[in-house]
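Sharing a chain and its predicted structure for anyone who wants a worked example. Both blocks are below, sequence first, tokens second.
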Amino acid sequence: SLSLSLSQISLYLSLSLSLSLMDSRMAPNQPNVFLFVPNLIGYARVILMFIAFYYMRDPELYTITVACYLFSQLLDAFDGHAARILGQSSKFGGMLDMLTDRCSTLGLVMALGQLYPEYFLFFQCYAVLDIWSHWIHLTASHYSGATSHKQIDLTANPILYYYYTNRTVLFGMCAGNELFFAALYLLRFSEGPDVGGYALFRATALLCAPIMVIKSIISVVQLVAASQNIAIVDNEEHAKARS
């Protein structure tokens, strides 16, 4: 049954998390980073992500799939706020957040590749660009000494600077991008309810498509800028080695 399956998934993930927490080798007086509130939100996102994956190919439970998926994405807006308010920012939390974002989008895009085989190459290219651009940006942040992939010096690139420093723009772009792919998924099973003479799911996909395109362009800019930053680090290291 649905409730039994959800319980089994949640129990398995909870047990795995508990074992990892028990094995954490921290000093008695040190705070347990794994139990920071933002990271607990992150674990909830991971659980919701796997529930969405589990039901993603079931044509009768597509609404549950999208509800879990979008709720997981929505929680992404709260873990950062919790970290700042509670003073519980952590490198582990930043990595958890980054990987959950990438893996959840990748899982949905993989499903869309099966649901829309005629556009399989597009979904492959999007997945590669998404992972490549964010990973190399994270690596460039590490080389620059930034504590987060959102804190790297972007003053030389006005597009990335505005994208990462304006929270409204960042949230709107990410939300629109996720809504586009979620709407594509829903469209495979239903046009959605009629809203003002327009099918909701199709209208959402059409309205969010430009956002997906713009975000993909930003990913290309991010990839190029990060590659250039890493090349600068390489040149500086070679210059020091020759001196």
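Comments welcome. The first strand starts at residue 194 and ends at 195.
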